[in-house]
TrEMBL record:
Keywords of this entry: ATP-binding, Membrane, Nucleotide-binding, Transmembrane, Transmembrane helix
Pfam families named in the record: ABC_membrane, ABC_tran
Membrane topology per record: Multi-pass membrane protein
Spans through the membrane: 21-45, 57-80, 134-154, 160-180, 246-270
Protein name stated in the entry: ABC transporter ATP-binding protein
Keyword rRNA processing carried by entry: no
Protein localization: Cell membrane
GO MF term set: ABC-type oligopeptide transporter activity; ATP binding; ATP hydrolysis activity
Species annotation: Lachnotalea glycerini
GO cellular component terms attached to this protein's record: plasma membrane
Domain ABC transporter residue range list: 337-569
Domain ABC transmembrane type-1: residue ranges: 24-305
Length: 577
């Protein structure tokens, strides 16, 4: 069985897990509710017969019969509501939890290769379709199938010839369904793909809102939005057209069946083999035959389309083979990190990292400096397992990165990034990431990150807001730093982590991190302050994806090379400001 097929089956299992009894009761109660519905046709026959025969006792019997049916219908409809909603709740909550858990298990590189719009679409548009067309659709299909067969049996009891003719009239929507069913599945999947692209675009445009406004590019961006919006809505229109065509076929079938019943009914009445009550009963029963056919055509086609969405989702969340083979676990760094002739590039483009050779020894501190686009951040991401298509070797002690289980890697390596992610939760929860830590460790991390004043002012239970909207950029960054320091990993990576802090706070944070003993610190920085740079054991100077120079501050300044030029330019800039 392929990975996608196995994952598809696992997805379907989530709907039934600890949920079979709710589903069973839903279906059993559904059958009783259907029988009470169909019994309305017999009530009509009884009441019309009592009128034709002017039989009061038959009239009262029919009224008592209907009263009993109404009571039964009310009781079992209430039970149906209870068991069906319980089934839907558990099925959806388990399914969503399973999917999200699988997404969280993806590696950074694997997640990076996917469009986040796919995941957002899966949890919005696709999940709504799966709920309506698969879960609710399955129950509806069962309901209409039972209704169809019970109504057929009831009509056959009244008149077999009319029943056979009615079945012939029902072939119209069935034929249309066979013709258009596969097309609907394809259009549903295309709609899902276009929706994912649309969500990606919306996310990008909103993230770039400041740039859009500052460059006065509203009209150009609106044109981009309009183009993708039109494509999505056109795809949805095509899907609706196909679905509506099948509904029209069902309506035509209903009209044909009614005409057949009335024509044959009149003939049989003239022959004396049927009564008016029986004809009216057949007309009512025909509703329980044509309506299921009409609905089943659409329901089955939509169910197939939703299965396609589940299959698509299973393919997105399945574990890639190259991720499954990473069996090597690490729990400490004894010697350090070694990069041997490391290269990285996108497809046929230029090298982003160009034959990097470097040894980061345990317990030492390293600064990575260089101009924009020189490969500094890329090098940090590479050491975190962000890329898989690199050349050369990246070794933690003597273990190659590509063979290391990334969950174990993150037990020994932590990273502070420039772009901070915060939950819409308290300061404390954002620091601890909802885990329990010793209070003394918490206080130490908060102190090192310069968060004491913020917590003293607002309290650790202060809500950070969506994406940290209630905090300044510097406050968010301090939380990110405290979060990382709290883990006390043997390797600490920092990627322009102090960029959004004021000079005094940035200096304080970087200086305190450099004073932490026993850990390896690799820090990407744009702040070329001499007093700090002198504290690094080694400074890597990057240019065009390669290490242009390496050494301590004094060595690099004496060399009078690229680093010296960068430092003097930065110093002049500070003096002017």
């Amino acid at each position: 069985m392929s990975g996608s097929s196995q994952e598809f089956n696992n997805c379907l299992k989530q709907f039934r897990l600890h949920n079979r009894m709710n589903l069973f009761m839903t279906l059993v109660v559904q059958v009783i509710v259907v029988i009470t519905n169909v019994s309305l046709a017999f009530f009509i026959m009884m009441i019309v017969n009592s009128m034709e025969q002017k039989n009061q006792s038959l009239f009262f019997c029919s009224m008592l019969f209907m009263l009993l049916v109404v009571v039964i219908y009310f009781l079992f409809s209430t039970l149906l509501k209870y068991f069906k909603n319980l089934y839907m709740k558990r099925a959806l909550s388990q399914f969503k939890k399973y999917v999200f858990e699988k997404i969280l298990k993806k590696s950074i590189s694997e997640f990076n290769n996917e469009f986040s719009g796919k995941f957002i679409s899966a949890f919005t548009n696709d999940l709504n379709s799966i709920e309506m067309n698969y879960l609710n659709g399955n129950i509806a299909i069962f309901n209409y199938a039972v209704m169809f067969f019970i109504a057929i049996l009831a009509m056959a009891y009244v008149n077999l010839v009319i029943t056979l003719c009615v079945l012939f009239g029902c072939l119209i929507p069935v034929a249309v369904s066979l013709i258009l069913g596969k097309k609907l599945v394809a259009k549903e999947r295309k709609t899902s793909d276009e929706n994912a692209t649309f969500v990606d675009q919306i996310k990008d445009l909103l993230n770039g809102f400041l740039e859009i406004k500052s460059f006065k590019a509203e009209n150009e961006v609106l044109a981009l939005f309009g183009e993708q919006n039109f494509t999505l809505e056109e795809t949805k229109r095509e899907r609706r057209d196909t679905n509506d065509t099948m509904l029209i076929a069902g309506q035509i079938s209903s009209l044909v069946v009614i005409i057949i019943i009335f024509i044959l009914g009149i003939i049989f009445i003239f022959k004396g083999t049927m009564t008016i009550a029986s004809v009216l009963g057949c007309v009512q029963l025909s509703n329980y035959i044509t309506d299921p056919i009409k609905q089943l055509v659409s329901l089955i086609s939509n169910k197939k389309a939703s299965i396609g969405l589940i299959s698509k989702l299973a393919d997105i969340i399945k574990e890639r083979v190259n991720q499954a083979v990473k069996e090597i676990h690490i729990n400490e760094i004894k010697r350090g990190i070694t990069l041997k002739d490391v290269t990285l590039k996108y497809e046929e483009g230029p090298y982003i990292l160009n034959h990097i050779n470097m040894v980061f020894s345990k317990g030492k501190s390293y600064a990575i400096v260089g101009g924009s686009g020189s490969g500094k951040s890329t090098l940090i991401k590479l050491m975190l397992g962000y890329f898989e298509n690199y050349g050369g070797k990246v070794e933690y002690d003597d273990k190659e990165l590509s063979t290391i289980n990334l969950d174990s890697l993150y037990d020994v390596v932590s990273v502070i990034q420039q772009n901070v992610f915060l939950f819409d939760k308290s300061i404390k929860n954002n620091i601890t990431m909802f885990k329990e830590f010793d209070e003394e460790k918490m206080e130490h991390a908060i102190s090192l990150a310069g968060l004491k004043n913020l917590i003293a002012k607002k309290g650790e239970d202060y809500n950070c807001g969506e994406s940290g909207s209630n905090l300044s950029g510097g406050e968010k960054q301090r939380i990110s730093i405290a979060r990382c320091l709290l883990r006390e990993t043997p390797v600490l990576l920092m990627d322009e982590a102090t960029a959004s802090l004021d000079n005094a706070t940035a200096y304080l944070v970087e200086n305190q991190i450099l004073q932490i003993e026993g850990i390896t610190r690799i820090i990407v920085t744009h702040r070329l302050e001499e007093s700090l740079l002198r504290k690094y054991d080694e400074i890597l100077v990057m240019r065009d994806g390669r290490i242009e120079e390496a050494g301590n501050f004094e060595k690099l300044m004496k060399a009078g090379g690229y680093f010296s030029a960068l430092f003097l330019v930065a110093k002049e800039g500070c003096c002017e400001s």
